[in-house]
Amino acid sequence: MTTHTAVADRLSPFGTTIFSEMTRLAIEHDAINLSQGFPDFDGPDFIKQAAIKAMGDGENQYARSFGVPALTRALSDHWSRETGFEIDDTLSVTVTSGCTEAIAATTLGILNPGDEVVVFQPYYDSYRACLSMAGAIPRFVTLHPPANSAETCVESPFSFDESELRAAFTNRTRAILLNTPHNPTGKVFSREELELIAALCLSHDAIAITDEVYEHLVYEPETSPHVRLATIDGMQDRTVTLSSLGKSFSLTGWKIGWAIAPPHLTAAVRSAHQFLTFATSTPFQHAAAVAIRQGDDYIRSLVADYRRRRDLLADGLAEIGFKVFKPAGSYFILADHTSFGSADDVGFCRRLIEDQKVAGIPPSAFYEDPSLGSSLVRFAFCKRDDTLRAALERMRSLRS
Question: Residue 271 sits in which domain range?
Fold first, then answer.
């Protein structure tokens, strides 16, 4: 009898996520985990207390599918304050089970089989799987580090070729999927870059899906501010903006995300969302509303802490011998590991876990052509100072 895999053909190429694999190895080898992007400290007490209060107040049954009124109104008010655009929360805001579900609901709700979608690589790995589930065809544009820099620590270096981006748009392009601030490069797309993307969307009648989960985690706001693509002329009515609570408030396990879009695109997102999760955790939504309305001071403090931790890790990695690409946003650092003699990123990361007891992520998993990321390793700096110092101390043995 022939044995067939039970995994559907559209998902079998992706296997287990690289995050799960590296975390498994980190636990197995008792390694410091700088691979997966979750803090090793807790979110603020005032938000946790709001969740407890909501539970005590009986907010424990199914929520309205697109979100409890307290949260959708908080999000619409926040959007208005950030963008200057007034929106109706009942028509333009959809609460999802994390941004990952928002990505899935948006792609499944908007895309048809055969539609082409422009995607920058390296990419968050769920993008590729969600596009496959929707039957869409990705067209990749590569973000490149500087080719000939002798510096050991380079700031905000990743860029794309304009001609490559223009060529990726065709008469079959339905959408572009954009992440800014970007994981894993830390790039914050500039206004000029976004205006180019907007012009291409307008000329090809394409929708923009923007993943902005790191919207508040920006470290050089004077030179690299976060600009929402939806605020560029002509884009308000063709952009779906995705984000979540977890990154800005250090509560990644709560899985509260959202999609903000004009009503016709919101209807498409909700058409899939209602059959994916229907609704997300009711008490956590009420607590998220409190976070959105009262969390500005916490975010400012977190960004200051992350800026310091970014510099701590970047400087330490450069001293050890990595070539470091210092991010302008997100909470990840990419570094070139080739000075330590490994042929590829997967082998280097395995060696790092086994010998130095530190876990990073091999970024080749985020490229359609894995060789483009083989010289790199990704580290997360959303960790306590002593965690980062301990990891750096362990990695010093790489120099010997």
Answer: 59-293
